[in-house]
Design a protein that fits this description.
4-stranded mixed sheet; DNA ligase (ATP) activity; D-amino Acid Aminotransferase, Chain A, domain 1; single chain; 3 helices; DNA ligase (ATP); OB fold (Dihydrolipoamide Acetyltransferase, E2P); disordered N terminus; Dna Ligase, domain 1; 11% helix; mainly beta
């Protein structure tokens, strides 16, 4: 991205703009998961960055960096905050993804534009997957920015990754933390439904930490119907695990699942809605 020198903010002639209309925060526009890229000239494509969703608020009183859940994390991203202060705007809200590059970015590169890539969606997705990226984003050129998941933005992933509630685990003396397999659930309306388990992706430390948290939530009976399980321990569905998976089975279970960690409760602990699950053969 070409950058011009950012020496100072613009000088306003006459009466300054009214900044009181700037919102304290806005709910972000969320991408709707789709199995394939959309067709048509109305769609613009970008790389899907695998990072942490942030909103940078630039105001006369200063800069604030808010998480998706509205928590002020300005102090955690000093490089982004410093560059935001140098941008030649009086007020703005920048919606973006905090990522870590292989080669650290510094100075004015702490904020970069995720540029449109002129390519066929199917071809771009293949290239993104070959390079180990998470996937691509498609944005409707005719839409405006709207909070929520309305379909103006679409995400197409190389590997699916979503949050699932932990409802229990199967014990194993041969596995890290004694966890043979986590038992997982997704949302279906106002209820949780069993979507299978995951027994890979753990290391000694993550399994021990997870086991410590789960053992504080043990209950006598399962919160949902998981079918008959041997050596199962059931827990209150308060922890949300980030799970990578390749597809869904015909009976609504995760296929080739791998544990990636726990989602943070205050921001990204939303449980996946099975109504939107992409069932594959």
């Amino acid at each position: 991205m070409d950058r011009r020198p950012l020496d100072k903010r613009p000088q306003w002639q006459g009466r300054p703009p009214d900044h009181r209309s700037m919102p304290d925060r806005i709910d972000p526009c969320l991408a709707l998961l789709k199995p394939k890229p959309p067709k048509g000239s109305q769609w613009a494509f970008e790389v899907k960055w695998d990072g942490y969703r942030l909103a940078v608020h630039i105001e006369p009183s200063g800069v604030r960096i808010l998480t998706r859940g509205g928590h002020d994390w300005t102090d955690r991203f000093p490089a982004i905050a410093a560059e935001a202060r140098r941008l030649p705007v009086a007020t703005a809200i920048l919606d973006g993804e905090a990522v870590v590059f292989d080669e650290p970015a510094g100075g004015e590169e702490a904020i970069r534009l995720s540029e449109e890539i002129e390519a066929d969606g199917d071809v771009l997705l293949c290239i993104a997957c070959e390079h180990g990226l998470e996937g691509i984003i498609a944005k409707d050129r005719n839409s405006t920015y709207r909070s929520g998941r309305g379909g103006e933005w679409l995400k197409i992933k190389c590997i699916q990754s979503d949050g699932f509630a932990i409802v229990g685990y199967e014990k194993s003396t041969a596995s890290f933390g004694g966890i043979g397999r986590l038992l997982l659930a997704a949302r279906k309306g106002d209820e949780l439904v069993y979507v299978g388990g995951v027994g890979t992706g753990f290391n000694e430390r993550s399994a021990a930490d997870l086991r410590e948290q789960m053992d504080k939530l043990i209950i006598a009976k399962p919160a949902i119907d998981t079918g008959r399980k041997r050596n199962a321990v059931f827990v209150r569905p308060e922890l949300v695990a980030e799970i990578e998976y390749r597809a869904w089975t015909h009976d609504g279970k995760l296929r080739h699942a791998s544990y990636k960690g726990l989602r943070e409760e205050q921001d990204t602990a939303a449980v996946y809605a099975v109504d939107l699950a992409l069932k594959a053969g």
